[in-house]
Amino acid sequence: VGGRGRVWIGGCRRVLRLDGMQVHRYPGQRAPQLPEGYIRSLLPLGNGDMLIGANREGVLHWELASGQLVPLTVQGGQRLTRINDLVAGRAGGAWIAAEQGLFYWPGGASRTLQPVNALAGLPSLSPRVYSVLDASDGSLWVAAHNGLYRRRPGGKALLPVRSGQPVLDRRLAEESVWVLAEDGRGRVWAGLVRSGVVVIDGDQAFAPAGL
Q: What is the DSSP string of 71-130?
């Protein structure tokens, strides 16, 4: 659900927007075409705009004022394909998790995405990022193809997360982390591709039984 009660639906080759009883279909005559891709992620913005993450077309910005879909380009000219997640930044803007890595959009009128520095230890052939969490304590968590990474408040580097427990550390280092969430107590939940969930609570970690 976007701003002002609009409901957005991402499908194959197009986006639908439901305004009460009226349906708007994108792309329209002035919007970029989505000939082969499908929509993977949607992020409503505070001003009524919408960020759209596509399978082949990268990130599109739907502008409320113009009603157009505007492609966002990457600083340096890199082309993005599959967008896995779009997450609002606590300081504004948005984080973009993509097959090509992690990117940041500063918001406002900017039409440029900024690449985030490479993750420590991430293989050059596997830059894939699945999800991002801008946590309440100011830390940035990144769910990647080969593990979980964190940038602590005030830090500059994204480093592998380690709990000190060999079994859990092996899971976090070797498995893909699909999704991240923060609960009401500030704990970070990491959903893994094979081994369920790992919960990080400060310097402690555990795997809930039965998940």
A: EPEETTSPPP--EEEEEE-TTSSEEEEETTEEEEE--TT--EEEEPPPPTT--TT---EE
